[in-house]
Amino acid sequence: MITHLARATAGAASAVCVLALVTTAPALPASAAPTPATQAPATQAPATQSLPLDQAIAALPQAAESSAGYDRAKFRYCNAGSNPDDGCDTRGEVLVAEAVSAPTVESGCRLVGGSWWSYYDAREITSAAALDVAHTVPVVEAWESGASQWTAERREAYANDTGDPRSLVAVSAASHRSRNDQDPARWLPPNTQATCRYITEWTAVKLRWQLTADREERQSLTQLAESCPNTTLTFTPAP
Hints:
- The structure is a single chain.
- By secondary structure, this protein is of the alpha+beta class.
- It is built from 8 helices and 8 strands, in the order H-E-H-H-E-E-E-E-E-H-H-E-H-H-H-E.
- The chain has helices spanning 7-10, 53-58, 90-98, 139-144, 152-159, 173-179, 195-208, 215-225, and strands at residues 49-52, 104-106, 110-112, 116-118, 123-125, 131-135, 168-172, 232-235.
- Strands 1-8 form a two-stranded antiparallel ribbon. It has a two-stranded antiparallel ribbon with strand order 2-3. The protein has a two-stranded antiparallel ribbon with strand order 4-5.
- It starts with 6 loop residues before the first helix and ends with a strand.
- The relative contact order is 0.20.
- Residues 2-16 and 18-38 have low confidence and may be disordered.
């Protein structure tokens, strides 16, 4: 991955959550409802796949990366989440889902109490404010690996992917910001016991979203996987 150390300070800060506007289309009168003959055929759900970790890494398409045209605003993060009625945006939903000890969810999705385990640095966190919700594969890495060719809607879906719990993870703000936008060739969790989990989740997210890897990234992942015997990776391609 092409790194940009100048972003290490400004780019590392958590993005401001912007709620997506939800509109409801007016209901069609009964006479205008589509008949079964005119309805679009149901699409088949993507098939879940399982691969040994080394084979999963080998399945990543290799390609050079470029950050040309990248803008963080092109990934609309923190929309209304997977459940627009729960009062929480994407960040809030992830924090509630990953809590080790459940917080009290107050009005506006204000989280009081609770505890979380930051696996990047093996720390227990007892304040939601001390956590970042990290994209396992940073959005700039996604851009460089294929997302530059996506529609705005698909980039938003990526940025708010709660369909796979490995896509977004609650970790300490300090560990997340030390990583910034670096790939596993240049950064690994300071908790060395987490290396196999991290590279497995990184690879799973890339496969889920059909993202590429550059040569150095693939080489590093392959070497690291040698210390993760008998590891199987399961993923479901993103719709």
